[in-house]
Amino acid sequence: MARSKDIAPHVGRLSRSQVAAKRGLHKGKKTTAAPAKPEQPAYTEKTVGGKANGEKRLVPTAKASKYYPAEDVRRPKVSRKSAGKAALRSSITPGTVLILLAGRFSGKRVVFLKQLDSGLLLVNGPFKLNGVPLRRVSQAYVIATSTKVDITGVSIPESVNDAYFAKAKAAKSTKEGEFFGEGKEKKAFPEEKKSEQKSVDSALLSAISKVEHLSRYLKASWGLSKGDRFHELKF
User: Rounded to an integer, what distance in angstroms lies between the CA atom of residue 178 and that of residue 174?
Assistant: First the structure.
């Protein structure tokens, strides 16, 4: 039976591409392999007439392209530099109280703990005091204050590194499922991270409690109001 019946003389019901799709030859495995091409030398030696022409000459096998760009195309320079760890500002030392300038916790005061391998700063609110958990921020988005906390007794777990903040890839959901809100289940916060947060908070809170009014200072958020001269402010 013909795959494409004629609807008029010499006019088939299906197009050439539709017939090819129905035949399904593209699905079969190709058993025949292309014959290997013999390697040709880059130059071939040819004899040339004339005494002054040297009798022999090397001629390239593949002719060079006659086309060339009318204007010089600039090639980007290959950089041999590798991104290293950012140098820490002299005003930021372990225990320095920082003011966050961007992100979800913008305007909050946090305590700087250490610099991670990526160059980002590891900070903590503490969470129990002002709601800021263990977090990493760029030093470009913080203001270093003159207030410092003695964190010699605060031990930071080795597991709190850049990998600690990596997010797991979520499974892909269909557009129809997204529309009806399917597959949006709230994942429970890992118990390990909870215990690590509590251990850092407890040690940090005990150090903060030794300084009068420091807990109230960390709870208060910072912001500019009308008439403030930013260049004259001292932190």
Answer: 6
Q: What is the pLDDT of residues 117-161, one digit of tens each?
A: 989 999 998 998 999 999 999 999 999 999 999 998 888 988 888
Distance of CA 10 to the CA centre of its chain: 58
User: 129 with 218: CB under 8 angstroms?
Assistant: yes
* Whole-number Cα distances in Å, 146 to 71, 122, 151, 221: 58, 18, 15, 16
Q: How many other CB atoms are there within 10 angstroms of residue 98's CB atom? A: 23
The Cα–Cα gap between 23 and 14 comes to 12
pLDDT tens-place string over residues 76-110: 888 888 877 888 999 999 999 999 999 999 999 99
Nearest partner of 151 among 195, 110, 103, 192, judged by Cα: 110
- State the CB neighbour count (10 A cutoff) for residue 208: 19
Tokens of 156: 């930071």
Q: Which helix (H) or strand (E) holds 97?
A: strand 96-100
Q: Is the pTM of this model over 0.70?
A: no
**Distances 179 to 104, 170, 184, 186, 187 between C-alpha atoms, Å:** 27, 17, 11, 17, 20
Closest CA relative to residue 207, chosen from 97, 105, 88, 131 = 97
Distance CA 130, CA 221 (A): 9
- Please tell me the distance from the alpha carbon of residue 154 to that of residue 95, in angstroms, as a whole number: 10
Alpha-carbon distance of 175 to 186, in angstroms, equals 19
What 3-state class would DSSP assign to 162? helix
Separation between Cα atoms, residue 31 and residue 94, nearest integer Å? 68
